[in-house]
Amino acid sequence: MTDEAGPWLVVGLGNPGREYAGNRHNVGFMVAELLAGRVSARFGRHKRAVAEVAEARLGFGGPKLVLVKPLTYMNLSGGPVAALAQFYKVPTAQVIAVHDELDIGFGQVRVKFGGGEGGHNGLRSMSKSLGTKDYARVRFGVGRPPGRQDPADYVLSDFGAAERKELDFLVDRAADVVESVITKGVEPTQNLYHGG
Predict the structure, then answer these.
(1) pLDDT surpassing 80 at residue 145
(2) CB 3.0–4.6 Å: which of 3, 56, 106, 166 could bond 39 by disulfide?
(3) Site Discriminates between blocked and unblocked aminoacyl-tRNA: which residues (predicted)?
(4) Which of 86-107 are b and which e, b meaning 16 or more Cβ less than 10 Å from the residue's Cβ?
């Protein structure tokens, strides 16, 4: 993976604002922030998109990373993502969305390329704005809501006390998965991480 292929756009999906910071829906932001910390990059407001962006390289001489936290609300994430993909000349095959996933149990991180959005408004907005569903997704399992709780209320609530004990480890694992997609590809990453 060399620079000739262009940079990688890693989009952490979430909602802006302190009141959303600990929500299940904001796990994409958490992973993007951890990745920025790993490569000693700082987020700053981008001049061409409603987003915070951090630029760095993955390892010495590695591929260029553009880490993104859209500052629109979740259902409008696609606009800033498409603007940044165009600005940085990133092919959609090198766009990675990191997001919460109701259809996967808490504690599991999965990766896939393309496919449906599973009712996720951030992914739906990205697919519409990019004009394709052909981008990678790192799916952070949050599980289904208990009882009859509305899924929308569930994802906009904070992780529970027991979940928070594992959260740092799982966000770290999700960041490892993102790095693996960039350096190894989707299929080898599935083989590495889907066992556990």
Answers:
(1) yes
(2) 56
(3) 15
(4) eebebebebbbbbbbbbebebb
